[in-house]
Design brief:
The chain contains 15 helices and 27 strands. By secondary structure, the chain is α+β, with helices and mostly antiparallel strands. A hairpin with a 4-residue loop joins β12 and β13. It catalyses: N(6)-[(R)-dihydrolipoyl]-L-lysyl-[protein] + succinyl-CoA = N(6)-[(R)-S(8)-succinyldihydrolipoyl]-L-lysyl-[protein] + CoA.
């Protein structure tokens, strides 16, 4: 009995799709949920998984054909040919039974779950290639989500015999990334895998590893637009029909060859040749979207003050050696600032609240996010229940989170649930700035560079180490008086550290 492969539901407004490419041909063995054909609509590309295991018996529609939702694509015959892929990979037909046994021993490495709110990840750089021998816990590949980067380790020692996804692909939890043969008998596997990259490296337009979708190619020909002029939004940068429509709407009407021969306006061909186009990472895309959303949603306002850092610096100088010897961590500024923030949040609870529809949610705890810059972008790990910690415990936790951030080891639990954020631009030399809210929080404190300035103290001009502080807040939740008072309380705590000890 044959199992039917049909066009799945593609969304309320999508009634048809174009066959972009078949991953299998008749006679090939198929495993359940393995991608067998890719469909392209005017909005997205979709891989259709096999509804059952077996052999691809027939293909009803060809690449480039347009089909409606529910249309028959092909048929899968049950059972027969199940050992076919193993035989193909291992070469000799007579060894199919042995190869089939070996295939059963292969270890699948799949996309791990990254948290409840994370449904997909982008495949980063592979640390291995087909044929490499790995040890257990060796890093195989790095995955990027919209919140963090995550390294995928090898679950066992063995030989990498298959890499199922390429750098730049988007994958969901549970999707096969690669296979490892722990038996050490995978000498013939690398040669079999050579064909996959070759197909991916087929000539493509606009820097993509994929040719334009058939419907996109047809429309580009009609509108006299070349693929180099269109930014592809499909998998691996593939140009879709919707991309061509958008390019045409933007006024792109002629091939780039003509443009280069007679550049219009300020465009300079020499400049274009020196440009580098790099795709934004998932993390960077999310940072951009969330920061802009915060500006568009919140009634954001910033109030400023300055603090004399002399007392904190003297305290550090006096106790730093003893502090490090006892607690195993250096005494920095962040412990004092975090503690001062917790004191101020208790006095001004509006700054520690958030809007949920028409309700205000007041947090009776202080989960303080500490912004950390990494080479992949800004991340904000959270010091949980900071109000219950000593300065030493806060410094230890910030140190641990900072190391995890730089090593790409932060998990979802490390970066969710914050109620207030501290951003220290001073480490980069910033003298003054207005931080953007970390939605849905209602406040963020910006620290800056310590700069010696002449100050009037008791009628005398003296040189003091001063720092500008900036509190950005959501004026929908926090009144001006509350914001100013909050910042003054932080200033008072830092200029008179005994207040932190006495809880004043």
């Amino acid at each position: 009995m044959a199992t039917e492969i049909r066009v799945p539901t593609l969304g309320e407004s999508v009634s048809e799709a174009t066959i972009a490419q078949w991953f299998k041909k008749p006679g090939d063995a198929i495993k359940v949920d393995e991608p067998i054909v890719e469909l392209e609509t005017d909005k997205v590309t979709v891989e259709v998984p096999a509804p059952a295991s077996g052999t691809l018996e027939s293909i009803v529609v060809n690449e480039g054909d347009t089909v409606e939702v529910g249309a028959l694509l092909g048929l899968i015959a049950e059972g027969a040919g199940a050992a076919a892929p193993a035989a193909k990979e291992a070469a000799p037909a007579a060894a199919s039974e042995t190869t089939g046994d070996k295939k059963a021993e292969l270890v699948d490495v799949v996309t791990p779950s990254a948290g409840e709110s994370v449904t997909e990840a982008e495949v980063g750089e592979w640390s291995v290639k087909v044929g490499d021998v790995v040890k257990a816990d060796d890093t195989l590949v790095e995955l990027e989500t919209d919140k963090a980067a995550q390294e995928v380790p090898a679950p066992v020692a063995g030989t990498v015999i298959k890499i199922a996804v390429q750098t730049g692909d988007t994958v969901e939890p549970g999707v096969l990334l690669c296979q490892i043969d722990p038996s050490g008998n995978a000498a013939a596997a690398p040669a079999a895998e050579a064909s996959a990259p070759a197909k991916a490296a087929a000539p493509a337009a606009g820097g993509s590893s994929m040719p334009p979708a058939p419907s996109a190619s047809k429309m580009m020909a009609e509108k006299n637009i070349s693929a180099e002029q269109v930014a592809g939004s499909g998998k691996r940068g593939q140009v879709l029909k919707g991309d061509v429509i958008a390019a045409a709407a933007a006024g792109v009407t002629s091939a780039p060859a003509a443009s280069k021969a007679a550049p219009r306006g300020p465009i300079n061909a020499d400049d274009e040749s020196r440009e580098e186009r790099v795709r934004m990472t998932k993390l960077r895309q999310t940072i951009a979207r969330r920061l802009k959303d915060a500006q568009n949603t919140a009634a954001m306002l910033t109030t400023y003050n300055e603090v004399d850092m002399g007392p904190i610096m003297e305290l550090r100088k006096q106790y730093k050696e003893l502090f490090e010897k006892k607690h195993g961590v250096k005494l920095g500024f962040m412990g004092f600032f975090t503690k001062a923030v917790c004191h101020a949040l208790k006095e001004i609870p509006a700054v520690n609240s958030e809007i949920d529809g028409t309700d205000l949610i007041y947090k009776n705890f202080c989960h303080v996010g500490v912004a950390v810059g990494t080479d992949k972008g800004l991340v904000v790990p959270v010091v949980r229940d900071a109000d219950q910690m000593s300065i030493a415990e806060i410094e230890q936790e910030i140190g641990n989170l900072g190391r995890k951030a730089r090593d790409g080891k932060l998990g979802m639990a490390d970066m969710t649930g914050g109620t207030f954020t501290i951003s220290n631009g001073g480490v980069y030399g910033s003298l003054m700035s207005s931080p953007i809210l970390n939605a849905p929080q209602s406040g963020i404190l910006g620290m800056h560079k310590i700069q010696e300035r002449p100050m009037a103290v008791n009628g005398q001009v003296v040189i003091r180490p001063m720092m500008y502080l900036a509190l950005s807040y959501d004026h929908r939740v926090v009144d001006g008086k509350e914001a100013v008072t909050f910042l003054v309380r932080i200033k008072e705590s830092l200029e008179d550290p005994q207040r932190l000890v006495l809880d004043l």
